[in-house]
């Protein structure tokens, strides 16, 4: 299953507001922190106005519309980018998150309790604040490059989230945080001494962005 994440545009806090599953049919229901999100101004989606389980034989249009058209000329390259041999809307949604510039939603594949190996790609949270760029001045970003390996440091004293995990460069410069929706699962694993790696995969210097540094987190570590 996938979690639907909503980011409050004011506080930039992530909330898990829904759950999308694919078994025989597709199902969607509100879940997680959606009640908390309502206190921050979030409202139910027009496609799902009631707090109930919705079911469909095909992927709900509200999600499929967030994906590239399978008839695009460059669709093969897009699928190759995400390691897909053929167009599968649900699998593509799992890979690219269905992020759009017009809102603050994304879908993520959660880390399950029994997952012994983990690989997740995500954007570093809070880097706009730590770099003081506010998403508008990329010259203020720390000196990092694609391929760099980063370090994780738990921050148990964080008043907003006791599972918070800081991300630093190899030289110790603070960049930001692991997203809240992954923090607890990752903290449990690294606290047990499991090896990990966190590598920079993309740096988007667009001078008008929400997040700019995407990393790939692996357990066990890919570094030998």
From TrEMBL:
One Pfam family this sequence matches: Couple_hipA
Residue stretches making up the HIRAN domain: 119-221
GO molecular function: hydrolase activity, acting on acid anhydrides, in phosphorus-containing anhydrides; nucleic acid binding; zinc ion binding
Keyword list, A-Z: Hydrolase, Metal-binding
Top-level taxon: Bacteria
Transmembrane regions: none
Name the record gives this protein: HipA N-terminal domain-containing protein
Lineage, opening ranks: Bacteria, Bacillati, Bacillota, Clostridia, Eubacteriales
């Amino acid at each position: 299953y996938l979690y639907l994440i909503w980011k409050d545009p004011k506080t930039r806090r992530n909330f898990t507001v829904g759950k999308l599953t694919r078994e025989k049919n597709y199902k969607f229901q509100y879940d997680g922190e959606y009640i908390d999100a309502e206190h921050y101004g979030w409202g139910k989606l027009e496609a799902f106005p009631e707090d109930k389980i919705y079911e469909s034989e095909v992927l709900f249009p509200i999600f499929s519309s967030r994906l590239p058209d399978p008839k695009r000329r460059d669709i093969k390259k897009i699928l190759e980018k995400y390691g897909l041999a053929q167009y599968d809307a649900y699998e593509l949604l799992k890979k690219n998150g269905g992020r759009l510039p017009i809102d603050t939603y994304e879908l993520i594949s959660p880390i399950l309790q029994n997952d012994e190996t983990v690989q997740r790609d995500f954007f570093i949270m809070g880097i706009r604040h730590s770099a003081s760029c506010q998403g508008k001045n990329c010259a203020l970003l720390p000196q990092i490059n694609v391929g760099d390996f980063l370090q994780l440091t738990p921050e148990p004293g964080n008043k907003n989230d006791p599972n918070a995990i800081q991300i630093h460069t190899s030289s110790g410069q603070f960049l930001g945080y692991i997203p809240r929706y992954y923090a607890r699962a990752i903290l449990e694993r690294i606290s047990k001494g499991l090896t990990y790696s966190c590598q920079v995969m993309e740096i988007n210097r667009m001078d008008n962005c929400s997040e700019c540094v995407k990393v790939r987190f692996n357990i066990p570590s890919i570094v030998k």
